[in-house]
């Protein structure tokens, strides 16, 4: 395969239509024994249907807090969060979540782990078995449907977690640094797998990461957050064609985007 971008691929088109997620002037203040801690400050963010948006920022800037609020697990101190035009006021059935760890149930098979959200939503499991197998096929795991989590590698377990997040056909998929516990080679492979699954399913994705390379490789747009309290300092369009193979990291535009982002976090500064 050539080291250039895939021939015939086109740059991602701008998303249109009503937003799946709309965050307006959102702030979060934690009340602790040592006083008030402002985690997020006056945050605005929009994700449209089928759009892959990465949130990039340093540790402790409130990235995971955003995900918890969108999932309805935490309430903001002020501001407004809308999913498909409706306020988020608790756990949302139209949201899929992929955590940092796969958190699979060890006593259930791969197929049954994928179907856990269906049982939680009290939907007829039999109606979703074909879809579960289709997702496992898409993730390259069809032959492991009857295996148990301890029979899978870490990357395979996380792919099961992605299938589980998609099984109930959510409007938006929330991903909280899903590859952070994986080794470098597995992490690179998983990024490619995720892109393939996303291009097939075309779900809106909110992807939390502190990896610049991961953000540029996967996202349509990157929301850059400041140190705590997290504020949006830039929303960067990633104008690289899809599909993005691993070799895209050698493209000059990839290097330009990465260098631009690195400057925010002083990663190129010389030690003195």
Walk me through what this model shows.
With 272 residues, the protein is of the alpha/beta class. It has 2 domains: 150 residues, P-loop containing nucleotide triphosphate hydrolases (Rossmann fold), CATH 3.40.50; 65 residues, no CATH class. It contains 8 helices and 10 strands. The protein has a 6-stranded mixed beta sheet, with helices on both faces. Strands 2-1-4-5 form a 4-stranded antiparallel beta sheet, covered by helices on one side. A hairpin with a 2-residue loop joins strand 1 and strand 2. Helix 5 runs parallel beside helix 6 and helix 7 packs across helix 8. The N terminus and C terminus are likely disordered.
Topology overview:
Blueprint: E1 19-32, E2 35-48, E3 52-56, H1 63-70, E4 78-83, E5 86-87, E6 95-98, H2 110-114, H3 116-120, H4 129-138, H5 154-166, E7 172-176, H6 184-201, E8 204-209, H7 212-218, E9 221-225, E10 232-237, H8 252-264
Helix pairs in contact: 5-6, 7-8
Q: Tell me the number of strands.
A: 10
* CATH homolog superfamily of the largest domain: P-loop containing nucleotide triphosphate hydrolases
**Distance between the amino and carboxyl termini:** 42 Å
Based on helices, strands and strand pairing, what is the structural class?
alpha/beta
Task: Jot down its keywords.
disordered C terminus, Rossmann fold, 2 domains, 4-stranded antiparallel sheet, alpha/beta, 10 strands, 272 residues, 6-stranded mixed sheet, 8 helices, globular
